[in-house]
Amino acid sequence: MKKNKSKNLKGIVVALKANFLIVEIDYKDFKDESFDYFYEKIRLLCTRRSKLDYQGLFIDVGDIVLVESIDYKNKRAVISEVEQRKSFLKRPAVANVTLVAICISVDEPLFDIEQASRFLLTAECANIKPLIVLTKIDLITKNDLMLFINKLKSWGYDCIPVSIHTSQGIDSLIERFRKTKLAVLAGPSGAGKTSLINQIIPNVSLPTSSVSKKLKRGTHTTRHVELFSIGNGSLLADTPGFNRPEIVCEPSDFAYLFPEFRTQLSKSKCKFRNCLHRDEPGCVVNKDLERYPFYRENLEKMINPHLPYQAG
Ligand SMILES: Nc1nc2c(ncn2[C@@H]2O[C@H](COP(=O)(O)OP(=O)(O)O)[C@@H](O)[C@H]2O)c(=O)[nH]1
Ligand SMILES: [Mg+2]
Ligand SMILES: [Zn+2]
């Protein structure tokens, strides 16, 4: 007897494969007499009802969907509805992300303020709190690591330092991921994202890229986004490497993407309501902060994309 035949089941899109979508369903919902072995989760190969295309509804990894016309034997189904998204990360395209873990290596490739900031601000832009995962800490001394941690603290971020070689920090990272619904690993290629996934989820084996000796940059190995179950109902995604996310926002909102400027702006107000924190009198943003030059240069580009900005 197939109890669930006419039922809609709720699931989450965990991968896109050519024209198909892979949807993960809780086994307890899927239970059917024809299944006698135990799985916590079941993955179904799905197509989508054409009405969704007419409605212009795109479906991405992370979307919560309803599936129907379930073929239990072949594990296939059809997506009939998509739930409204709570958040959407554009690059990589993942819906309903609850934590962006930005992997930044302390070396190989070398830590780069501008690049790290671009990833951090992109997450802030999508209204998703970023967490910094400082990778490859086996390559530096304890002292240098402290300098990194303090630097990131002065920018307003906490970080979890990790190494896949010493396994340092891996347990704290797993614990943090299990406290959130859908975490995405982002960051420059070569930072060690795929290596981390392979450690966290031992039964997957994703190809990692070796860091090019000459350029000290990673090559792009991860090509698509896939969500993996990591226990406690939490999912984790590796993302394809790309190195320079564009920050798209209004000039007046830009300063609010920086936690260290946000703190200052919440304590006291600039004299002018439309202050862009350039050289306006009565501005409360401290121009000596480490990332101010980065803020300023990018702000000038937003205001006037055609003029080169010269600091000082
Ligand atoms: N020394 C060291 N190397 C690492 C560590 N994690 C990753 N790597 C190396 O960094 C390179 C790039 O890793 P990969 O996981 O493909 O980076 P991704 O592009 O961010 O997915 C590989 O050669 C890894 O072996 C680490 O903790 N320490
Ligand atoms: Mg990778
Ligand atoms: Zn100001």
Number of strands: 13
**Main beta-sheet strand count, sense and barrel state:** 6 strands, mixed
Helix content: 10-25%
Dominant shape: globular
Structural class: alpha/beta
CATH architecture type of the largest domain = 3-Layer(aba) Sandwich
Q: What fraction strand?
A: 15-25%
CATH superfamily placement of the largest domain: P-loop containing nucleotide triphosphate hydrolases
What is the number of independent domains? 3
Ligand roster:
guanosine-5'-diphosphate, magnesium ion, zinc ion
> Could you state the oligomeric state of the chains shown?
single chain
With strands numbered from the N-terminus, the spatial order across the biggest sheet is 10-9-8-11-13-12
List the helices and strands and how they pair.
Blueprint: E1 9-17, E2 20-26, H1 27-30, E3 41-48, H2 50-54, E4 64-71, E5 76-82, E6 88-89, E7 94-95, E8 99-105, H3 113-125, E9 130-135, H4 142-154, E10 159-161, H5 170-178, E11 182-186, H6 193-200, E12 226-229, E13 235-238, H7 251-254, H8 259-267, H9 292-303
Parallel strand pairs: 3-5, 8-9, 8-11, 9-10, 11-13
Antiparallel strand pairs: 1-2, 1-4, 2-3, 4-5, 6-7, 12-13
Bound molecules: guanosine-5'-diphosphate (GDP), magnesium ion and zinc ion.
Describe this entry's structure for a reader.
The chain has 312 residues and is of the alpha/beta class. The protein folds into three domains: 9-82, Nucleic acid-binding proteins (OB fold (Dihydrolipoamide Acetyltransferase, E2P), Beta Barrel), CATH 2.40.50; 88-238, 3-Layer(aba) Sandwich (Rossmann fold); 251-303, no CATH class. Helices cover 25% and strands 23% of the residues. The strands form three sheets. A six-stranded mixed beta sheet has the order 10-9-8-11-13-12, sandwiched between helices. It has a five-stranded mixed beta barrel with strand order 1-2-3-5-4. β1 and β2 (20-26) form a beta hairpin. Residues 217-222 have low confidence and may be disordered. Zinc ion (ZN) binds at residues 270, 275, 277, 280, 283-285. Magnesium ion binds next to α6.
